[in-house]
Amino acid sequence: MKYITPLVFLLSGSVFATEFVITEETLQAKVKAQNPTLSEIESTFLASKINAEEMKDRFGYEFYTGASHANTKEKALISYQPVFSNVNQYQMGVKKYTKYGVVLDLNRSVDVRSADDNYTDLTTTTDKFGIQMDLWKDFMGAITKSNFENLQDLKKKDELQEEISKNVLSVNVRKLYWSIVANSQKIKITQNLHETAKKQAADARRRKAASVSDRAEVARFESLVHQRKGSLLALEYEREVLFKNLRDLFPDLNGKEFKLGDYNIDKTIFEVLSCSAQIDGQKQVPFEHTKYDEIVGLLKSVQGRQLKVDEKYDDIDLKLDLAFQRVGVASETDDDSNYSGSYSDSVEDLRDNDRSGFSAGISLTIPFGENKKGTTAVKEAYTEKQFDANISNLETNVLSTHKQVQKSIKLLNSLIKEQRSNSKQLAIRVKEMKKKYSQARIPEYALIQDEDSLLQSDLTIVDTQLMVVNTILDYFAVFNTYPCNFNRK
What we know:
This protein is an alpha+beta fold. The protein contains eleven helices and ten strands. Helix 3 packs antiparallel against helix 5.
């Protein structure tokens, strides 16, 4: 029985363990699928969409209604003047706000009053159409329309930035993938030299047994085995860190084993070099392949409107209220002592008799003191500096990325050529040094020193190649639609 549980565990592990093959294609599919990082990006840019939609909602139609009831037992000051002890009022209407600073209001109100037994349901029905407009500060929507257009442009700007952020996520995942590939390359190189070191140690032990070498030589090669094993373990630890970063990006990969899929380094380097040559031949900054210039244009538009809005902060406020109304009254009597009415009678009176009226009013608000002027100056300075800094950073990022990549790629390509030539010559030297060592013409430390030099040169080539790939990918983070084979989506 004691062997059954481990056996079941091993079998279940082999059956239920899942494997995720790491390739550019599988990782890009994970980027496009819903994941926490993608959700965070999308939620970051929802605020401007909400503000724009809320502003748009303000210009819709607004239905309102209300009712009130009043009752009193007060006594009339004049004996023949009735005291309406039961008053009911109702109102229902539709209001329309516009981005041109005009408010339209169409409503109907009904007033029903009763007093003792002599006055029953005396009804007044009023249809009213009102217009409120700003004659100065927000004339023709100078402020309202600007705020509306600003929110719409900020919404577009955030939509573009959301697209950019998603592209940056895709680029970062590709950079992580190529870091894993580079790590795998370095592990292979180090494993080969580790195996070589073990063979050399075994050969040294045989030479010692044959009294051709001594304990010092054996110890040096055995030390080299541990040294190479340590380097290998360090690279394996680096690989696990990279895997952790992958799991952090895509939590659904937790619990899965990773396997690096097939890749073609030579093809990738060829694509990267073709792209770099294409970018190097680009005389002008390819603004048509980036979203940053559109964002800059939107920010400049928003800044211009916002500065005009800020200027009006301490301005006078002059409003005009116009109202057109028709009234219908239902108050009928047969004996001049008892009066009664109804809602239907008041509507009939409204329809049959012209009891129209017109009203107009103007209100003026003048800021007093220096407080608002100071606030206006601060708001203008804030708007100018905030947008200028943002616009400048975006423009600088676009220009510097294109210019710097052109220079960096040239240097890195030249560096790879020199490193490859160095490795080639070191490989020739190591081959000759092995012959000399086998003939006992050189000490073991001379051979080890050259092998280490070759190892470091090969590892450096891998790191430089990764730098080239990352440099090109950083370029695609800005110029996301640049036509290039390596700019895969």
